[in-house]
Give the backbone structure.
Amino acid sequence: MNSKNILFLSIFLFFILSTNINCSTQGLNKIITSDEQKKLIETFEKTLSSKDFKKENFQSLLQSSVGYQILSGSSIWSKIQKEDLCQEIKTFFEDFSPNSEEQYESQKAIWTTLNSLQSGSIIYNELQCHTKKKNNKINKLSPAIKELLLKSINGKSSRNIYLGGQTFFELEKTKIFNEKETDEFRKATLKSFAKMLALLEEDDPEVEFSQYILELAVLVVENYDSETSYQALADDDNDIIDESDKTESESEDDEEEYESLEGYLEMTIEELLENVLELIPDVANLLVENDGQVTQSFFNDESGKPDLEITSRVLRTFVKLKKLSIKLNKDEEEEEEDEDEDEDGDDEEIFTEEDLIGLAEFLFSRKSTQDISAAYNVITGLKSLDEDRVFKKLICITADKEELSIKQKSKKNAMNLLVSDLFGKALPADNIEVFLSRFSPVSKPEQSLTSHFLINQDRKSGQYAADLLAYRPSIGFYNLEVRVSYKPPKAGTANKKLRPFKPVDVTILTKIVGPVKVSDLEIVVKQPKSQGGSVLTRNKIKYPETLNSAKKDIVVNRDNVLSISFRVIAGQPSKSSKKQKAGFQQSINNLIETHQAMIKITDLETGIERYFLAIQKTKKYQCTIDINSNDGNMDFSSGKYNLELIIGNFFFEKSIQWNFSQIKINFGDLSEGEQKILDLSIENQKIHPDFLIKDEIKHIFNPDPKRPPKVVSNAFTGIMLIPFLLLIILLYIVGFNLKSFPSLKNPIAVITNLTFIASLAFIVLLFLAYFFKLTMFKTLFYLLIISVISSVSGYFTLRNLDK
Amino acid sequence: MTENSFKVFKRIFDGYKNSATQSLKIIDCFLLFQFLTGIFQFVYVFLVGKFPFNSFLAGFISTVGSFVLTINLRTLVDPENKETKVSIKRAFVDFLICNVILHLAVFNYIG
């Protein structure tokens, strides 16, 4: 080759390379790990814990089954008593009747009922309740349900139309409706769908659009023949006269409200689908304008918080609609096996890569939920994002370790990278190439310890081993940039497992840590500078020993200054390759700065701990403790103390907490103020009584107030009898006559008279008995009897008096 | 002075003795009895405090209520009463029934 060709070739290659670099996209550096998936599976299984199935649980059961199926691949239905569930569904559908008229009025009640109906009907079909056992089959649908379905399908809320329509279509599969009803429902659903689309055309989609219109579109396309239209269905109907009468009266209203309704009524399902597909970019814009978090005000619901359900539902329906449209077009166009389509297909794609990543991040932020519907939404949303026929492929690269230590041997301790989809399922190795692009410290991003090179896959684990320690990084934070690009499969391999994609870059934050040691620790007790600054004692301690206290104790008197100095050394990778014989050797000879360096003084008696910071002066740390000043906060307490050194940093394998010596501090006699400070410090250590456990309060009722002594009471009881005696005496004085008493010749009269008097006496006795023994009910009962007797006898007695 | 008042009282008393029928006198004794009972109860409570207040109320209302009913009976029984024309028997029966109801409540309330 001559130089011209070489030049041309190099420029060409450079151009390719640069465009390749410029055209790469971002990937994700997190996935939903298998532990998190297990937790979600457990959440889904919790719905089975209540064996008693109620209609309120149908929706969560259905959601759990879908989520469980996606995550574990198996069906949740094998774990439940299908018969019980089928019975419950059957009872619900046959015996449903709303409690009152009010239930129909409340939107919320209608929604919950429709939700239960929809979920129940889907479960009914999935479990094949109507085929397994005859007594599980729904024989006759409750008329209230039919009424509710019709009402919701003919209503104005797209949510209700969708729920009602779905219920109808699910139940229709079990052949529970007759032909007339089926016709009616089918026409009504299609008409309502056309109405909704017409409504959209009239108004601003930001104000009136509902996520449920998309669901409705999916429902319609799945259940109607693609060539039919509402007009066609209406024409099929024999009662043309009735139809035209209806449409005349209704169409007046319709024409006022929706001008375009007629047009929609004439469109075939295919054309309606195209209309809906045109809406998708607008909805996608709404979704990502808020970084994947949709405010509900855009959809006709209430509050304005970011919503998981809407995001997930919109993604699901996008996928379904796209798939349905592909299916419809399959017969018409040839499916092109191409790789060019995706290279320039930005216009055809719904979301850009950043938007997809934003949506995925939003869904990941909710993955640790315990709520079933939230978990369902997260899982189905992620599953929808994973569909690379609809959205661009999202590639996730995750590392199995967060940090590597320079003490570890390089080849055995590589950082294993998993290149996978959102769920952690590895991409097929035949179709991808993984490159380690850059490995640079975060503080100096321009320095890369490695150039762009290919990583091979470890056949055992399926992961890619990035042997970072081989580059001998020093300790610190590093950015690891990994690139994944598409590799066309070898000619001859039949299945193309992966669709082509642009190269994807992912940045992973890693940490390199190393061992640490303290050296040259020195304890110096000296006179303060004002008195000369001469050194009284000096002790050197080697890490990790403790100063032998059998020797003379270090004593610090009041005037003295305690000074502790030391150096911190961290491990660094050895630059010489000779030492790399059996793995990786480190040499600890590097003075470094640390994040935290302090001395902790613990009072052995009271247990009070005090901290002093060590300041760095030219790579040597020094901590000066002037016990006299209150800056040191020694609180003037004398006694024995423990000295500990605490060193901490991000990049130490293990931080140091080293008890190196005991000292004795002697304050001598304290002035009054100083004594007060000391007492206060001890006092503060005690817990305030308010925070301690208090005595138990035993409740006592109010004691009865004092009563008078019994003598007084009894005396007064006696006094009370005086008027009675007085009465008797007076009566005797006045004299009472018994002339009216009937003579003995008239026995009946005598008896009635006596009965009357006796009954009155009995009433008095009854009251006494009531006071001592009886209950009110019995008293009243007996009173009734006696009063009858007394009234009868009294009547006769008094009548006889005149005679 | 006291002689005069004594004479006045005696005159009233004699007038009373002559004019009132026997049944009226009996009823008057009964009235006096109820009145005294009520007064004594009230004095007792005044002295020793009203701890079981419900008992005091029961006793007091018993006397007061009966007093009222007896006065009612007296007015209806009085031959000089020309305004209300109710037969004595009717009055008596009413008196009995009301007393029964009153004492039912009273016994309930003694506690």
Remarks:
- The interface with chain A takes residues 22, 25-26, 29-30, 32-33, 36-37, 40-41, 44, 47-49, 51, 89, 92-93, 96, 100, 103-104, 107-108, 110 of chain B (CB under 8 Å).
- Chain B has four helices and no strands.
- The first helix of chain B runs from residue 2 to 19.
- Chain B has one domain: 22-110.
